[in-house]
Design a protein that fits this description.
Layout lengths: L1 H14 L19 E5 L21 H11 L3 E5 L9 H10 L3 E5 L7 H10 L1 E7 L11 H8 L5 E5 L2 H6 L1 H6 L4 E3 L14 H11 L3 E5 L14 H13 L4 E3 L16 H11 L3 H16 L4
Parallel strand pairs: 1-2, 2-3, 3-4, 4-5, 5-6, 6-7, 7-8
C-alpha cells in the first residue's frame, strides 16, 4: 500500500509542470512533429520593459521542456512577450537552447534595421508580433510599413488584439503583403459566442488564404470554463470547419494573463483538439503540416 502511494506521488511529480494546473498527461496522442505554436519564455536576467503590464515569474526552457513531455509536442514557437518590449535577447537565447525544432516570433518597431531583421531570421525568427491588448511596444500604424519590410523574408505579422479592433481594421489585414496570424481565436468578445463578427471575418480571411488563426487561449473570455470550454470550443470548431488548412494550435504557456493560482491545465487544453478537430488527418495537419508551412520548419 505504501509503495503504491509512493509510486503515485512520483508519477504526479513527473508530470507536474510549472505554471500549469493538474499532473495528468494528455490523453490525445500527439503525432510526430506536433507543434505548440504559441508559448513564452521568461528569465529574470533580462530587463523588463518600462510600463510592461504582464510580468510572469520565471518560465525557462527547462520548465517548458517539462510541458512538452507532458503533452507530447516536439516542435515549438517561442513568442516574444510584452514584458520585454522590443528587446528580443531572451527570445534569442531561448531559440539557441531549443535548437532546430523551434522557431520564434519577435517584436520590433519601425526603428529596426535590415541587418537586425536578417540576424533575427538566422536565429529562427519567422514573424513579428503586434500586441494591441498589452499595448506599448508597437502601434497599429507600424503594421503596414513593417509588413512591407518582412515580406521578402517570408515572415508573417502576428496580431494579438481584441475582436472589435480586429474587425475595425479588416481592410488593413486584407491588404498586407504577407500573411497575418491572429492570436487566441481572435479574442471574441466575452462571453465568447460563435456569432461574433470577428469569427466571420477571420473565417473569410482564412478561406481566402490571407490569414491564419491560432487555436489557443480557450480560457480567455470563456463563461463556461473548464474542462470543456463550451463557448470557446464552438468558436474553434467554426474556424476549423471554415479553413482547417489555415489553423495552428498553441498552449500560451505559462499563461501570463492568468493569476498564479488560476492557471489552466495544459493537458486539458491539448485534449480539446479531439473535440475541435475530430478528423485525425485534419488534426495532424493542424499540429504538424500547417506549422511546418507557416514557420518554415525543416522536413
Amino acid at each position: 500500500m505504501l509503495r503504491g502511494a509512493a509510486d503515485m506521488a512520483a508519477a504526479d511529480a513527473q508530470h507536474r509542470v510549472k505554471w500549469s494546473a493538474g499532473t495528468e498527461g494528455a490523453t490525445l496522442p500527439a503525432p510526430p512533429g506536433a507543434t505548440d505554436c504559441h508559448h513564452h519564455i521568461y528569465d529574470a536576467r533580462f530587463p523588463v520593459a518600462p510600463g510592461a503590464v504582464l510580468r510572469s515569474g520565471e518560465a525557462t526552457v527547462a520548465d517548458y521542456r517539462a510541458l512538452q513531455a507532458r503533452i507530447g509536442t516536439s516542435r515549438n514557437v517561442v513568442v516574444q512577450p510584452s514584458t520585454y518590449g522590443v528587446d528580443n535577447r531572451c527570445l534569442l537565447e531561448a531559440l539557441a537552447q531549443f535548437g532546430a525544432a523551434s522557431r520564434g516570433v519577435a517584436v520590433v518597431n519601425t526603428a529596426v534595421t535590415d541587418d537586425e531583421l536578417h540576424r533575427l531570421h538566422g536565429a529562427g525568427v519567422r514573424g513579428i508580433r503586434f500586441n494591441m491588448v498589452q499595448a506599448g511596444a508597437t502601434t497599429l500604424d507600424m503594421v503596414a510599413p513593417l509588413a512591407a519590410r518582412i515580406a521578402p523574408l517570408g515572415w508573417h505579422v502576428q496580431v494579438h488584439a481584441l475582436a472589435a479592433m480586429i474587425v475595425a481594421n479588416a481592410d488593413l489585414w486584407r491588404d498586407l503583403p504577407c500573411p497575418v496570424v491572429f492570436d487566441h481565436l481572435g479574442r471574441p468578445q466575452a462571453p465568447v459566442r460563435d456569432g461574433d463578427p470577428v469569427v466571420a471575418l477571420l473565417c473569410d480571411l482564412a478561406r481566402a488564404g490571407r490569414a491564419w488563426v491560432k487555436l489557443s487561449g480557450a480560457y480567455m473570455g470563456s463563461a463556461s470554463g473548464p474542462p470543456i470550454y463550451a463557448d470557446s470550443s464552438a468558436v474553434a470548431r467554426a474556424y476549423v470547419a471554415a479553413a482547417p488548412h489555415r489553423m495552428v494550435w498553441g498552449s500560451d504557456w505559462p499563461h501570463p494573463t492568468e493569476p498564479a493560482d488560476g492557471k489552466p491545465d495544459d493537458a486539458i487544453l491539448f485534449d480539446l483538439l479531439a473535440a475541435w478537430v475530430p478528423d485525425a488527418a485534419q488534426r495532424r495537419a493542424i499540429l504538424v503540416t500547417n506549422p511546418a508551412l507557416l514557420y518554415d520548419f525543416p522536413d
